[in-house]
Amino acid sequence: MSGQRVAVIPGDGIGTEVIASARAVIDAVSTRHGIEFGYTEFDWSCERYTRTGTMMPDDGIDTLRDFDAILLGAVGWPGVPDHVSLWGLLIPIRRAFRQYVNLRPIRTFEGVASPLRSAENVDFVVVRENVEGEYSEIGGRLNRGFPDEMTVQESVFTRAGVSRIADFALELAETRRGYVTSATKSNGIIHTLPFWDEVVAERAALHPDVRIDSEHIDALAAKFVLQPERFDVVVGSNLFGDILSDLAAAVAGSIGIAPSANLDPTRQYPSMFEPVHGSAPDIAGRNIANPVGAVWSAAMMLDHLGHPAAAADVMEAIAVTLADPDTRTADLGGGADTTEVTAALVRQLS
Ligand code: NAI
Ligand code: MG
């Protein structure tokens, strides 16, 4: 098979529906641009877990290693604890492949109402540190069940880890509006976050063309709601980035359209692209899921694999499709089902 190789993991619930849609859209834009991808599909999911006892085979990580990218729907299903699906598939992939950047673009579209009265021209990216920080396994719990029961969990911030995420944010800002906001709380968390601030400032000094602000996370959360249009690139630790990216997606209007990328910017390992939403058991199997989050994630994959013109075409098709109530899904007040939105996107790209 010539061309780049993509591992496709549709997963559970609407994951399978939105990935089918994303595949159709990539096929259309690939034909237009003469791009050739080789796909391999994997049935790794909660359904597989129920059948075999594992989310993916023991050699799953090795199987993925030689692909150029991974496209994932969503995993999770009632009856399988969420920590099983998360720690049995997603987190091992992110960690084994050093996907230290979690990238979540947020923008407003005509046709997608924000819960905020005046959110317009919002266009920013949250860059979340994805492998260290507050999500560490270092810690423990003592004296279970006794009055002196206690627990400790250590946050881990390394010079290498903070430097590379800051560098990624600064370089991304250079391709955009040249403005980075760094999320901190160095007034209250007195060891790790002053260190974060110091290292971010050192890296920023190497990019005099980028303007940088440091904002405490509480005030920053308020500004996301009050002035979302002022942001360009927002960089934060694993926990701060997680919370800010969900807040930002809500400001933009719908979880159904929000995309994400887990990137290894060194390109030693495959990066993984997935919509922000989960498997949505409440609407699964009804052909009503919004496919735009998965399609936008696929556009990020095209961009990462060196096809920016194809990615831009997909974004244009998304904007046109969202603007028309006849080609929007019900979560956005539209009258179309998943198949109809997919067909509209494919039509735009043919
Ligand atoms: P969810 O994102 O699946 O659903 C939340 C709500 O948003 C539901 O009412 C759902 O119908 C709606 N929704 C989500 N995506 C939509 C779309 N594309 N179009 C229209 N409506 C949409 O989150 P929930 O319910 O908390 O989790 C369900 C399962 O998904 C759980 O097992 C959870 O662990 C898993 N999950 C997996 C993720 C992943 O694979 N990365 C991420 C988030 C949740
Ligand atoms: Mg989250």
From TrEMBL:
PANTHER family for the chain: D-MALATE DEHYDROGENASE [DECARBOXYLATING]
Domain of life of the source: Bacteria
Assigned EC number: 1.1.1.83
Cited InterPro entries: ICDH/IPMDH, IsoCit/isopropylmalate_DH_CS, IsoPropMal-DH-like_dom, TTC_DH
GO MF term list: D-malate dehydrogenase (decarboxylating) (NAD+) activity; magnesium ion binding; NAD binding
Keyword set, alphabetical order: Manganese, Metal-binding, NAD, Oxidoreductase
Keyword Manganese carried by entry: yes
Family: Belongs to the isocitrate and isopropylmalate dehydrogenases family.
Pfam families: Iso_dh
Cofactors (names): Mn(2+); Mg(2+)
Record field: catalytic activity: (R)-malate + NAD(+) = pyruvate + CO2 + NADH
Residues spanning the membrane: none
Species of origin: Mycolicibacterium goodii
Residue ranges of domain Isopropylmalate dehydrogenase-like in the record: 5-345
Protein name per the record: D-malate dehydrogenase (decarboxylating)
